[in-house]
Amino acid sequence: MESSKADHHAQEGEQTMTTQRHRSVLQEDLFIEGDIQGPGILEINGRLVGDIALDTVIVAANGSLEGGVTARNLTVIGAVCGPVEAKSLAIKAQAVVQSDDIATSMLSVEEGASVNGTIRMASGSNSIRPPA
Fold first, then answer.
1. Fewer CB near the last or first residue (10 Å), C or N of the chain?
2. Residue 52 and residue 57: Cα distance in Å, rounded?
3. How far is CA 104 from CA 29, 84, 119, in A?
4. What is the pLDDT of residues 99-114, one digit of tens each?
């Protein structure tokens, strides 16, 4: 009986670890050129040139992204230049977003933000899907 309880707790721990999203941070002094994809969270404080597909992306105040982004959640405080597909998109006061193609289901734009481009509001049944 004791070993089956221990096995059960071990299995619960393994399931929790596989469903957690890990956070990666691109520091201010870093520049990365290339595509990034995965199930995690990326905070961009530096400069990234390339396409990204992640669960959650945060472009911090000093961060910039030049390329396409596909994410379930995207928060922009810095600058994004490129196509955007996000289920939830939050553009903060000092942010700059320049894109000919922004597709989202939920949009929040704070006063003071600069948004240049075309925005398509998608219904909940649209095909915006985060990476697996």
1. N
2. 9
3. 30, 8, 8
4. 999 999 999 999 999 9
Q: Name 117's bridge partners.
A: 99
Average pLDDT over residues 4-27: 61
Cβ partners under 8 Å of residue 82, min gap 6: 51, 65, 66, 67, 68, 69, 99
3-state secondary structure 3-30: HHHHHHHHHHHHHHHHHCCCEEEECCCC
pLDDT at 123: 77
Please name the residues in contact with 12: beta carbons below 8 A apart, sequence gap of 6 or more: none
CA–CA distance from 113 to each of 26, 76, 116, 118 (Å)? Answer: 23, 10, 10, 15
* Mean pLDDT value across residues 89-94: 97
At 72, which helix (H) or strand (E)? strand 69-76
The helix/strand/coil state of 37 is strand
| DSSP tag of 49 | E
